[in-house]
Amino acid sequence: MRSPQNVAHWSEPMRSVPAKVLAFSREHSLFTPGDTVIVAVSGGPDSVALLDILISLSDLRLNLVVAHLNHSLRGAESDEDERFVADLAASRSLPFVNEKIDVRAASAREHFSLEDAGRRARYEFFDRVMERYGARSVALAHHADDQAETLLLRLLRGAGVTGLSAMSPCRDGRFVRPLLTLSRSEIEGYLHARGLRFRIDSSNADTAFLRNRIRHELIPHLARFNPEISRRLSVTADLLAADAEVLETLASEALRRTVRERTDDSVILGVAELLHEPRGVRYRLYRGAVSLIKGSLLGLSYKHVLQIDDLVRSRKPNLGIRVPGGVAVVRSYGLLTIGRGVEEAEWEGDIIIEGPGCYALPDGGEMVVDVGSPPEDLATLPPDRACFDLDCAPFPWVVRGFRPGDRIRPLGMTGTRKVKNIFIDEKVPMERRRLVPLVFSNGDLVWVCGYRTGYSARVTEKTVRTVLAEVRTSAGTALK
């Protein structure tokens, strides 16, 4: 624990720092007067300064709740941090809520790094505290130097404009960072001027963590080239964040232009429309579509975005890939489908049709078969209905899915055609082909449902008995 000296010439930070934070908060609409705000306090210098500054902003009339998560990483030292924060909250007559978690055990159990496991545990804790107190936001103590470190960290790991824009003043409308406008030195000056005590986390000096190596080794090295490197990097992150906002707006507008169909499980985009968009907009558009389906972009890398773009730009009409999170991306002619369960489906087993009746199909639809008089004009039958000479197409029928090598002699044509080529001509999506019912009688293919009827079972002037068949989809819509 440290208790800095109260030096008279540091009285200026006592006035300027809160004013700077207030202006920044108003600029980014971080608070509304009367808000209940959870203040994340570890006991370190930054969070102690954050709590003190928020208390001083009396015009905002904030209802503050002090929250502390004990990570159990430093034994007795972690417990002392917890007691320190509890005493700090009590000295300010503020509500205090705390939890204790074994982050090391969580890291091993979930196969996350210690840093990632700790971050996940903190945000889950914040969610619980927000719900308990009905809070509007959680205030975090990240400052401009943290911003610089985060930019360098993401640069080393690889990131685009959004990643390099680092931390935003307000994330998800719930997590606010009022101190992003302050440097570490400004915070230290404020702490000294106010005579505030705080705790020092010994793990912050452990260079086994990449962030600590950036803080203690890389930034001091870069400061030899520019003493204001942290401030410059923070400004760069802010500029990139502004650019990211513009790009996100463009990508959202492009997504609306390119969407052909949207369901809970999939987004269908027009390939031609996608190709009219600039490359950078397309990349963001793909990410936005994936996020709509899986709810996050966790695991989606630049490599996956390039793979999706390759599908869009390919001359091959039917291609598909899978990306992290159980999301399939399928290019089928002029459409790109991003969703769950859009991969190529399979028809399991054969359906035997013994006679008139209603028979369930694998995709949730049904086939209705009835013996009766033919319609007056066979040419007017819609694609989902067909009429056959029952003597030429006797029961039992076998209904199954497409298999390589299937052929039919289509009505009105000489010779046979591969069913595969019919699908290609009709631009049937790859993921639908194996669910198109094929009707066989006496081993002869008499109907590719929705696309072609067979010559051998045609109705002629000599026909005595006719049979009508209709395919109804699960939604009650036509096949094509």
From TrEMBL:
CDD domains: TilS_N (cd01992). It is found in: Cytoplasm. GO terms for biological process: tRNA modification. ATP binds at S42, G43, G44, P45, D46, S47. InterPro entries: Lysidine-tRNA-synth_C, Rossmann-like_a/b/a_fold, TilS/TtcA_N, tRNA_Ile_lys_synt, tRNA_Ile_lys_synt_N. Residues 397-468 form the Lysidine-tRNA(Ile) synthetase C-terminal domain. Its EC number is 6.3.4.19. It comes from the Bacteria. Keywords: ATP-binding, Cytoplasm, Ligase, Nucleotide-binding, tRNA processing. It is an enzyme of class 6 (ligase). One of its GO terms (cellular component) is cytoplasm. GO terms for molecular function: ATP binding; tRNA(Ile)-lysidine synthase activity. It catalyses: cytidine(34) in tRNA(Ile2) + L-lysine + ATP = lysidine(34) in tRNA(Ile2) + AMP + diphosphate + H(+). The keyword Protein transport does not apply. The keyword Oxidoreductase does not apply. Its main location: cytoplasm. HAMAP family: tRNA_Ile_lys_synt. The N-terminal region contains the highly conserved SGGXDS motif, predicted to be a P-loop motif involved in ATP binding. NCBIfam families: lysidine_TilS_C, lysidine_TilS_N. Ligates lysine onto the cytidine present at position 34 of the AUA codon-specific tRNA(Ile) that contains the anticodon CAU, in an ATP-dependent manner. Cytidine is converted to lysidine, thus changing the amino acid specificity of the tRNA from methionine to isoleucine. Belongs to the tRNA(Ile)-lysidine synthase family. This is tRNA(Ile)-lysidine synthase. It comes from Geobacter hydrogenophilus.
